[in-house]
Specification:
Strand content: 25-35%
Structural class: alpha/beta
Largest sheet: 6 strands, mixed
Helix content: 25-40%
CATH class of one domain: Alpha Beta
Number of strands: 10
Strand order of the largest sheet: 6-7-8-3-9-10
Radius of gyration: 17 Å
CATH topology of one domain: Rossmann fold
CATH architecture of one domain: 3-Layer(aba) Sandwich
Order of helices and strands: EEEHEEHEHHHHEHEHEEHH
CATH superfamily of one domain: P-loop containing nucleotide triphosphate hydrolases
Length: about 240
């Protein structure tokens, strides 16, 4: 579904990604894990065309997209849930969700999608008329993910969904991500510094260090490596 081929990216001529390559197959959860500053968010920004790679190519469903405008990326079926959630704090939960469905022209489609979202995230339905800014950090993250789902994407990209959230809610959010993948068959690309949680729900994973992929494989195999144990799990 998604192929990233040897992309390089930089900020003001300072390199951030060095020939990064990976792929995501349909129906998979693929995790890219690494420490803060490794370049994980930059990868998602290049896929969603917030920035363009200096070199390399990105293909989605065999169509090259690395020079495609950002608004057309959404139309192709890629939803990006950014780091820090970026909600409209003064708007209600329902209004935030409706904005996520702006590519869905039919009101009937938006309404049916909203009902499905509320089944997945019942806490959002209970508080649907409250301002998004009144929610807890974990609830805001659920809303951000739900808003991404409102466009009915083929690929959902999640940027650090565990950031700033209580450990108990982190587990709950990852379980919901896993549920959406299983029940809806939705393909998910997850970037995370919470290595344990990210690897436990993934079908395949890549380890990123200083803008380079240094390891890849099945999560169960990666969790057994000395590198993951020492660098990320504190063992």
């Amino acid at each position: 579904m998604l192929r990233v081929e040897r992309i390089k990216a930089s900020y003001d001529e300072v390199p951030a990604l060095h020939e990064v390559s990976f792929k995501v197959e349909p129906g998979q959860i693929v995790s890219i894990v690494g420490a803060n500053g490794a370049g994980k968010s930059t990868i998602l920004k290049t896929i969603s065309s917030i920035m363009h790679p200096d070199e390399g190519a990105i293909y989605f469903e065999d169509r090259r997209i690395d020079q495609t405008p950002a608004h057309k990326i959404v139309d192709l079926g890629i939803a990006h849930v950014p780091e820090g959630r970026r909600l409209f704090a003064r708007l209600t939960i329902t209004q935030n969700l409706t904005l996520g469905a702006y590519t869905r022209k039919s009101p009937e489609h938006r309404e049916s999608t909203l009902k499905k979202i509320f089944k997945i995230f019942p806490v959002l339905e209970q508080r649907k008329n409250l301002a998004a800014g009144t929610l807890s950090g974990g609830e805001q993250q659920m809303l951000a993910i739900a808003r991404g789902l409102m466009s009915k994407p083929k690929l959902l990209m999640l940027d650090e969904p565990s950031m700033g959230i209580m450990p108990k809610l982190i587990t709950e959010i990852f379980e919901m991500v896993q549920q959406v993948n299983k029940d809806e068959g939705l393909t998910i690309l997850l970037v995370e510094q919470n290595v344990q949680e990210a690897l436990e729900i993934a079908h395949y994973a890549y380890v990123l260090q200083t803008g380079r992929v240094v390891m890849e494989g099945k999560p169960a195999d990666l969790l057994k490596t000395d590198m993951i144990k020492k660098a990320y799990l504190g063992l």
